[in-house]
Amino acid sequence: MSKKDKTVSNALNRHTTPKLASLYQAVDLRQQIAPLIIGERCNPTGSKRFRELLLAEDLEGCLEIALEQERKGAHLIDLNVAWAGRDERTDMVHLVQLFGRSLRAPLMIDSTNPEIIEAALKNCPGRPVVNSINLEDGDSAPGVICNLVRKYGACVTALTIDEQGMAMDCDRKFEVARRMYDLAVNEHGLAPEDLLFDPLTFTIASGDEKLKTAALETLAAIRRIKTELPGCHTVLGLSNISFGLPPAARRILNAVFLHEAVAAGLDAVIIDPDNCIPLDRINPVQRELAMGLIHNRGGGNDGPLMAFINHFSTHIEEESKEEERTPPEQILQERVRQGSKQDLPDLIEMLLESYAPLAIINQILVPAMRKVGELFGDGEMLLPFVLQSAEVMRASVDLLEPHMDKKQLSDAPTVLLATVQGDVHDIGKNLVNIILSNNGCRVIDLGIKVPIETIIQSVREHPEIDVICLSGLLVKSAMIMQESMPLLKSAGLKLPVLLGGAALTRRFVAEDCAPAYDGPVVYCKDAFTGLAAIREHEAGTLRSTTWDRNAPESTHSKTTTEVVATLEEIPSAPFLGARTLAVNPEDFLPLIHNQTLFRGRWGYKQGRMSNKQYQELLQQTVLPELEQVQETCRTQQLIQAQIRSGWFPCVREDQALLVDYEGTQWRFPLPRQNGRSRLSLVDYFRTREQGGDILGLFLVTVGPEFARSCHELYKANKYHEYLLLHGYGVEAAEALAQYAHRLMRKEIGIEEQGQRYSFGYSACPDLELQKPLISLLQGDKIGIQLSDNLEMIPEQSVSALVVHHPQARYFAV
């Protein structure tokens, strides 16, 4: 590798999103729902079973322990093989090689010996974590390991230990962390995101007066590290906190302390995944006793430790038993919460003997759905189960409607709902419709890509409308919402306007939308926030979203211009122009990332479930649903995949890419960041004077049948099936795009180098550029067209620019 190539490679390492990787997948260091779980059982000191297998040289048995942890939800596997009388280097290399080719989870190489660490790094695929460095013997040894971490592109855990020993209080923990930060980042060139600081925790169960506040000191250190060392991560070996307690008590204390640590900013935890308990499964009395022990408060005369110990010595944990005579009101509310229609007609008939129909809705059903919303907002209920609850609510109201007069039915608040002009995405809008309509609202759904003039006309035609709800996924959608506010004002409207969508922020709504309208303008992060806003409007308390302009800016907003290397040589295009490929579903559907599908599209997030509970949910519910969706796609032939891809000569000119092909010139203006790294996509391309460059473009679609089938399910009120099929279609299109990008990389011999970017998203938000892209590729040859609002039809389609530069990364302008 030339000196220039090394410079490019090093620059690339500096600016990648914080991820770890195995041979098979990348894992976000910062999990969407913290923490990153690091399985601890592959350690001869902590696991008798692993030790016995290691001593018997049963490497396959050792692997099975790692696989068990992976199946139970571990994102990362810690591997420690140090044991007296064993050759640590040989054991480490053999197991790293075996684990590396067998596990999807990345590895944490657990050793403080630089020779063993380097041997492991040489044999470890992907991007691991090295565990660990400390300052017990000064700066020399950790400096050597930092150099290895930098050389092999790994991350490293740093323990708050120095020449004085283990840091006990917050100030000392941060002092040591700050010193290690300077050593690793300023002296040895690691990036802040390469560091995971372990501020250490000590048992609060020993009765030692000096350790009563050990948990508080650790929590304070986590907060300070996250605040004062921006970009760095935090990790804890959790089980130390409860050392000395019986197993049942340890599990409770560990779970509550983990919840507190995550709230303080903890990114990762080293734990047995089987011992993770979601907070809502813990007895409230036990939870409060654990909180008292962690925060060193309460407990009466005995103090918090003895109160906690006495509780577990005098109480036997049992499963709660259902009361024999549960009131029907409570049963109906439980049916809603559980998404069960069992005995629903009989329950409604029984309640009608004591309640008026409207009272059943307002006093029983609506509070039940409100509780569902609270559970969803707290991360304790998953979106698919919310939709099942909504179906029970809908069925209950259907049973009550024959007993209600027309005036009662017309008293519900009326909501006008629409996806704004320029946006064909309807999944968010449809979910809002489901939640609102099943919580007593009458919804007038205008559909997708609705012009503001149509919205104004609809309000005039329906004087009963109480609230306007606008939805949109794209950056351009947010701009259209902003532009719509003065038009609504000019039309004389003052109805509340609720705005929701992925590209919106509270600040944008407060500062850029609300001032241009005379009525309340409210930012809604989800459907339940919107429902709450409607309730506030009914109560006369709804106000526009506000933003504190004096709030401190993020420490990451500092401008630091990023230098992008100019490539001396560029790959050769295998052809110029565009071509069409028909693709078998079997070629790209395996690329669907199930975790993204299950958690992101279908809403099956782990939340506060233990890993065991979440795995049971996946095995018993989610995977069978996946098989059902896949079978539907096969039998109904919903996937008709095609790729249209091409290579074109281009040059960078000012803030644009110019493509000159067959006598016609196309221009792609690409914006630059105002702050941060000052990046623009044009930086990755050469000018005419530098020899010019090549630009890859592609269009992919899974075909029109998917959108048709989704529409039919939604119209039939099959909300759950609609969510599943729609989400699968979106991920199938993304998998097809990934497959197309992989093919194009292979064509020019760069394998994993470079990135792809889609218009309408953060690095290139202008959807107008879909026009030259589709024109160049002749998208009509695979049935892709642009709507008047610049959205691709069919919906399950993806377009992208392919950038070959090795420093290319994702960013927002």
TrEMBL record:
Pathway: Amino-acid biosynthesis; L-methionine biosynthesis via de novo pathway; L-methionine from L-homocysteine (MetH route): step 1/1. Its cofactor is methylcob(III)alamin; Zn(2+). Its EC number is 2.1.1.13. Methylcob(III)alamin binds at G422, D423, V424, H425, D426, S471, A527. GO terms for biological process: homocysteine metabolic process; methylation; tetrahydrofolate metabolic process. Residues 412-549 form the B12-binding domain. Residues 35-295 form the Pterin-binding domain. One of its GO terms (molecular function) is cobalamin binding. One of its GO terms (cellular component) is cytosol. Gene3D superfamilies: Cobalamin-binding domain (3.40.50.280), Dihydropteroate synthase-like (3.20.20.20), Methionine synthase domain (1.10.1240.10), Vitamin B12-dependent methionine synthase, activation domain (3.10.196.10). PROSITE patterns: ADOMET_ACTIVATION, B12_BINDING, B12_BINDING_NTER, PTERIN_BINDING. Residues 544-813 form the AdoMet activation domain. SMART domains: B12-binding_2. S-adenosyl-L-methionine binds at R756, Y810, F811. Pfam families: B12-binding (PF02310), B12-binding_2 (PF02607), Met_synt_B12 (PF02965), Pterin_bind (PF00809). Keywords: Amino-acid biosynthesis, Cobalamin, Cobalt, Metal-binding, Methionine biosynthesis, Methyltransferase, Repeat, S-adenosyl-L-methionine, Transferase, Zinc. Residues 319-412 form the B12-binding N-terminal domain. Signal peptide: none annotated. Belongs to the vitamin-B12 dependent methionine synthase family. This is methionine synthase. It comes from Candidatus Desulfatifera sulfidica. The lineage of its organism: Bacteria, Pseudomonadati, Thermodesulfobacteriota, Desulfobulbia, Desulfobulbales.
